[in-house]
């Protein structure tokens, strides 16, 4: 992809919902506003998602172990939700970005699939 195509693609993403994965395992979901030469990304109306802390996982595993003592501990699955909070406008430093995903609504996905078929 040449520089002009890359710029056009970035422009097409403005206003779209992106999911940005950071090196500290946080995930930011928000509306893409802009980027710069340092690959910093600005998102608006952003939610931050975090995985549970190791101590919270340990506590949940202990509770599950106490409730279901008949199951061997190494075969238990403990399900926990990620924590989230609304943070609004955020700058995600380019050096900490691991992955960027475009979030699509079901309608956008259907349109994309129909365009592929034609």
Automatic annotation (TrEMBL):
UniProt-listed Gene3D superfamilies: 2.30.30.100
Entries under InterPro entries matching the protein: LSM_dom_sf (IPR010920), LSMD1_Sm (IPR034110), Sm_dom_euk/arc (IPR001163), snRNP_SmB/NAA38-like (IPR050914)
Residues in Sm domain copies: 8-102
Pfam family, one: LSM
Source organism superkingdom: Eukaryota
Coiled coil spans: none
GO cellular component, one term: NatC complex
SMART domains associated with the record: Sm
Subunit and interaction comment: Component of the heptameric LSM1-LSM7 complex, which consists of LSM1, LSM2, LSM3, LSM4, LSM5, LSM6 and LSM7. Component of the heptameric LSM2-LSM8 complex, which consists of LSM2, LSM3, LSM4, LSM5, LSM6, LSM7 and LSM8. The LSm subunits form a seven-membered ring structure with a doughnut shape.
Protein name, as recorded: Sm domain-containing protein
Source organism per UniProt: Petromyces alliaceus (Aspergillus alliaceus)
């Amino acid at each position: 992809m040449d520089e002009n195509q890359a710029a056009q693609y970035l422009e097409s993403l403005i206003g779209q919902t992106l999911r940005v994965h950071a090196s500290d395992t946080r995930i930011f979901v928000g509306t893409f506003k802009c980027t710069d030469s340092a690959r910093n990304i600005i998102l608006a109306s952003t939610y931050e998602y975090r995985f549970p802390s190791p101590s919270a996982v340990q506590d949940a595993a202990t509770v599950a172990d106490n409730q279901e003592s008949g199951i061997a501990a190494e075969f238990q699955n403990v399900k926990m939700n990620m924590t989230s909070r609304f943070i609004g406008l955020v700058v995600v430093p380019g050096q900490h970005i691991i992955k960027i995903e475009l979030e699509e609504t079901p309608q956008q996905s259907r349109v994309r699939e129909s365009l592929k078929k034609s």
